[in-house]
Amino acid sequence: MMFPLIKTLRPKQWIKNLFVAVPLMFGQKLTDPTSLLITAGAVGLFCLVSGSVYVLNDLVDIEKDRAHPKKCKRPLPSGQLSETLARNFVIGAVPVALALGYFLEPLYAAILGGYFVNNLAYSFKVKHVPYLDVLSIALGFILRVLAGAFALRVDPSIWLLSCTGLLAMFLGFGKRAHELSAGAEQAKKQRAVLARYNAKLVTALLYLLGAASVGVYIAYTMSGHVAQMFSPDAAVKLPFTTVLPLIAIPRFIQLAVTRPDAESPTEEMLRDPIFMGTFVLWLVSLAAILYGWI
């Protein structure tokens, strides 16, 4: 039963929880072993809670999934995982995660609880409301960054939260644009709420949010906040990293709107050498500049 349970926890989706580690980078604690351990624990607890939400979703949708040509193969609807075990796991895992989170830092535990409540609202109501569903997903990413900051007891800057929120909405509407690119009827079969989306508006929002994400990041690299937080040398070099998002953002848009047969733009993004190469180069150059390695 362990493998079906682990599969239901959706480990592939846990990469999103790395946003909890963003304050580790920008809080200049990347080289501090204690901060690394705290952040690892904070990410791990988010994985446990987010995984529990996936289990809960599958429990709620089990009858619908049994009638779905692909989802019927998931562990719960196929009978590989018992409903009792899945239910008991959620009942036990979430309180344990919150208790451990409180031990780590009370404010972190509060954000973790808020994240769980936001996901419950999404699962039972918000996912059926067009546009608001993407905002709820974006809120989840902002909560991850806040949680990481509180766990390390560093102040999350408005720049960091703004960039996170814009980027999360960009990725969310990218997914909706990808789903809609398959055609209205096919999109409705994938997700009922898509019938209430306007494809042209979603595409416009995708381009607008992409431009806004890059624009705010450019403004951040040249802001007084950077000059105050980091070394003068870093403040001079950081604007040069903006060329990389200028490559990555359009590439994601291309992946989202031109490959309707792909499982999701996120899957395509992770497999795409251009996007991933640009992202890794940005991450390495950012760390090297902020920590004075170059």
Structure, briefly:
By secondary structure, the protein is mainly α. The protein has 2 domains: 155 residues, Tetracycline Repressor, domain 2; 138 residues.
What keywords describe this structure?
Tetracycline Repressor, domain 2, 2 domains, globular, 16 helices, mainly alpha, 294 residues
Can you put this structure into words, describing what you see?
- With 294 residues, the protein is mostly helical.
- The chain folds into 2 domains: 1-155, UbiA prenyltransferase (Tetracycline Repressor, domain 2), CATH 1.10.357.140; 157-294.
- It has 16 helices and no strands.
- The N and C termini lie far apart (49 Å).
- The mean pLDDT is 91.
Spell out the blueprint of helices and strands.
Layout: H1 2-8, H2 22-26, H3 33-60, H4 62-66, H5 75-78, H6 83-104, H7 106-124, H8 132-152, H9 158-180, H10 184-190, H11 199-221, H12 224-229, H13 232-237, H14 245-258, H15 265-271, H16 273-290
Helix pairs in contact: 3-6, 3-7, 3-8, 6-7, 7-8, 8-9, 9-11, 9-14, 11-14, 14-16
Estimate the strand proportion.
under 5%
Number of strands: 0
User: Kindly, what is the distance between the CA atoms of the first and last residues, rounded to a whole number of angstroms?
Assistant: 49 Å
CATH level-four homologous superfamily name of the largest domain:
UbiA prenyltransferase
Shape label: globular
Give start-end ranges of low-pLDDT stretches.
none
The gyration radius over C-alpha positions equals 20 Å
Q: What is the overall number of helices?
A: 16
According to CATH, what is the class of the largest domain?
A: Mainly Alpha
Instruction: Estimate the mean pLDDT confidence.
Output: 91
